[in-house]
Write a structure and sequence with these properties.
heterodimer, A: mainly beta, 6-stranded mixed β-sheet, globular, B: alpha+beta
Chain lengths: 562, 186
């Protein structure tokens, strides 16, 4: 009998070993000691250590284009109810909207397990192992295979790998897969609803699992706290990403403390305000002191622990200068910048010299067309508070009393975006007697028509595209250029060459050099000064005509008919 | 009735047998939830292989590689939110990024002292100790994860088509460290 009981107990013990066990946030070992647990840690809002992955996307370094569909690597076999599609941080930065998907979630299990990605102790103590893994030749070869990218192309220095930590978390009883950026965007969509439940994961350990030490791909190095929960804005702009590069990092772009504006241009200058909570009961007001004028900006609200962009729209002076803009905040908030240095430049006065028949350039070789930084879309948002009433009866005696409102402010995130579309067309001048279509002889003039269309959901915060400058191959796309004249303003702006003082007919023309060899003649136009709270939109534009023959062939000497 | 040792033994074995069957069924039920997803994973792996974007290597000339960039459109987030109206004011020196938000105006003295109704019109009833309390209103929005008519409720997005979720994975057998570090993450 004893033997039977022993066998039975052994059997029960074996079963208990194989039964799956759920780990919940409350009282679980995945809670750091420095700042709280995984949100409320209820059975509808929890995360288990190790439920994580990494999203990998190939990015072209020159223009930050997303060149492959992202892949999600994980050691787990997650069963996900809702994911947000395979969208990388750069796409979100470019204005892609968060979109839930309930199809089966695709993932890849590496044969060598990924190192631990999400630390539960703040920051990431495992970053060395992560770096070792994702900079390894064989791992990168495998990523190349999975993304369909040729390995040698991938590592030739023109591409980078964008890594993003992913968490598989249960929120509101629904299992989600989301990157740090998606978590922040989702939280904005919920007006702080995710943060209120899962702050230690969604706003601390997930975004701080990876961040940049060196600015790259337009994202700054993170210099903020590595132990405290971050705001949605900070996560979207700076956290939850790693970059594997095969060449040098990009030089850092001009920050918000150093704007470069053109003269006589309507611009938007922004700062980030944070600290405490700003609501209609205790609002913050931002003041910008610009050129002796004080601009007061209101309507700046944000929930506790988050932040809000505040911006001012103003017009730059007509003369080049360096301006210091002082920013002050009344209330509990603080601005990201107390002073902003703005350099105002004048791009006019660099028109090409008068072309003459004797111009020669026998050593001409075509220069590469410039590729300046361009940004064709931007997104931002506004926290909008609404009062949540909570009436409580205050008794003042038997059958007497009054209702008192002990409510609070809820916050809704309202998203806005702006997009810039533009085109450029060069054609032979109407006075060219021998031009045909887009073919002309060298020495004759060309005209240009550039159109810039801006679309936005917040027109009060977006200017039209105001500046277009055309550069030419004969000047190696530098030294001389033409500041185009805006012939139509607004969100459907049009630009042409200004009237040419050397043109007999004062046409809006640019003369091609008479020595220009046969072939494609490609002017380059940089369209800019479409300002939004999230920076300037700009675009590189090119268009060509074909040079065949020269103006001399249209001239001959003959006796005058008597 | 006195049971013999043999009978006791048989009864014990029969009891253990029944218990084992119950436990096996219980264990099988625990594993069943993962099985469909795994099967689905195998089936869809082939499909995901086929959809990997094709990117060609550059020629030996060193010219720019011919890489097709998928169009990433920026949907109008305003239309997604539905209520993203522009209420900002950027004219002059007194500007605002949105219209001023104010608290609802204070209710009348009469409304504040009516124990049967809260000032915002909700019906109130007395608790056991006689204190009026607003009746709990039915939640106007569904709960996260609620399902109805082939849709699932996702907070922030409302009712969206429910395709059942799940997971479909494949193994990258060639993803391991060979020790040759070629990238830079510093």
């Amino acid at each position: 009998m004893k033997r039977v009981i022993s066998l039975f107990l052994a059997f029960v013990l074996m079963i208990s070993v194989f039964l799956p066990m759920n780990a919940y946030a409350i009282g679980d070992g995945n809670v750091d000691g420095g700042g709280g647990g995984m949100g409320d840690g209820t059975n509808t809002d929890f995360w288990n250590t190790g439920d994580e992955g990494v999203r990998v996307t190939v990015i072209r370094a020159s223009d930050h284009a997303v060149v492959t569909t992202p892949i999600d690597l994980t050691n787990k076999h997650p069963v996900i109810a809702v994911n947000f599609n395979k969208v990388c941080k750069i796409s979100y930065t470019q204005g892609y909207a968060l979109s839930p998907d309930t199809h089966s979630y695709d993932y890849v299990n590496p044969s060598q397990a990924l190192p631990k990605i999400i630390s539960t102790s703040g920051g990431n103590g495992n970053i060395a192992a992560i770096k070792s893994y994702f900079t390894d030749e064989q791992v990168i070869r495998s990523i190349a295979n999975l993304t369909g990218m040729n390995f040698n192309v991938l590592i030739n220095g023109q591409y980078k790998l964008l890594l993003e930590p992913i968490a598989y978390m249960t929120f509101g009883g629904v299992k989600y897969a989301m990157t740090a950026t998606e978590a922040a965007l989702f939280d904005q969509q919920l007006g702080g609803g995710l943060r209120s439940k899962m702050v230690s994961l969604s706003h601390k350990n997930l975004p701080l699992a990876m961040f940049l030490e060196t600015p790259d791909l337009g994202y700054p190095a993170w210099v903020g706290s590595t132990t405290k929960a971050a705001s949605d804005t900070d996560i979207i702009s700076s956290l939850g990403l790693g970059i594997v590069r095969f060449s040098e990092a990009e030089p850092p772009t001009v920050g918000t403390t150093n704007y470069k504006y053109r003269v006589n241009t309507e611009v938007i200058t922004s700062v980030t305000v944070r600290g405490g909570q700003s609501d209609p009961d205790s609002p913050v007001t931002v003041r910008f002191m610009i050129g002796g004028q004080t601009y007061t900006v209101g309507g700046v609200y944000y929930p506790d622990g988050d932040s809000q962009l505040a911006w001012v729209r103003w017009t730059t002076p007509s003369t080049p200068q360096t301006m210091t803009i002082c920013v002050s905040v009344s209330g509990r908030g603080m601005a990201s910048e107390g002073t902003i240095t703005a350099k105002i430049v004048d791009l006019s006065g660099h028109d090409p010299p008068d072309p003459v028949a004797d111009d020669r350039n026998n050593s001409y070789t075509a220069s590469p067309v410039p590729n300046n930084a361009q940004k064709t879309s931007a997104s931002w948002g506004v926290w909008c508070p609404s009062w949540h009433a909570n009436w409580v009866w205050i008794s003042t005696g038997e059958d007497s009393g009054y209702w008192e409102d002990t409510g609070w402010w809820d916050f809704n995130w309202i998203s806005y975006s702006a997009n810039l579309n533009a085109s450029m067309n060069v054609t032979p001048d109407a006075k060219d007697p021998t031009a045909s279509g887009k073919v002309l002889k060298s020495g004759y003039g060309i005209n240009q028509a550039t159109t810039a269309r801006v679309s936005t959901s917040q027109s009060s915060a977006v200017t039209d595209a105001q500046t277009a400058v055309t550069y030419f191959p004969e000047f190696e796309y530098q030294s001389f250029w033409r500041l185009l004249e805006q012939t139509r303003s607004g969100y459907n702006a049009e630009f042409e060459f200004a009237s040419n003082k050397y043109s007999t007919y004062k046409h809006r023309t640019h003369f091609t050099p008479i020595w220009m060899p046969d072939g494609s003649y490609t002017p380059y136009t940089y369209l800019e000064d479409c300002w939004t709270p999230a920076g300037m939109l700009s675009m590189n534009l090119t268009n060509s005509v074909t040079i065949r023959g020269s103006l001399w062939s249209d001239w001959h000497i003959a006796p005058v008919t008597p | 009735m006195k049971l013999t040792d043999k009978t006791k033994k048989r009864l014990t074995l029969a009891g253990l047998g029944v218990l084992s069957v119950v436990l096996i069924v219980a264990i099988a039920a625990q594993f069943r939830t993962g099985t469909p997803a795994d099967r689905q994973a195998d089936a869809s792996s082939a499909a995901s292989d086929a959809s990997v974007p094709s990117i060609s290597a550059p020629g030996a000339t060193g010219s720019s590689p011919d890489v097709s960039v998928p169009a990433v459109s920026a949907p109008d987030t305003a239309s997604q939110n539905g209520s993203a109206k522009d209420t900002g004011d950027s004219s002059g020196t007194n500007q605002s990024i949105q219209a001023e938000v104010t608290k609802p105006s204070a209710p009348s003295a009469e409304a504040k002292t009516d124990p049967n109704r809260t000032p915002d019109g909700k019906k109130a009833s007395k608790t056991d100790n006689g204190t009026p309390t607003a009746d709990p209103s039915k939640p106007s929005t569904p709960k996260s994860g609620d399902k109805k008519d082939g849709k699932i409720y996702v907070p922030g997005f409302g009712w969206i088509e429910d395709n059942g979720g799940g997971g479909s994975g494949k193994t990258a057998g060639d993803m391991y460290e060979n020790g040759n570090k070629i990238g830079n993450m510093n």
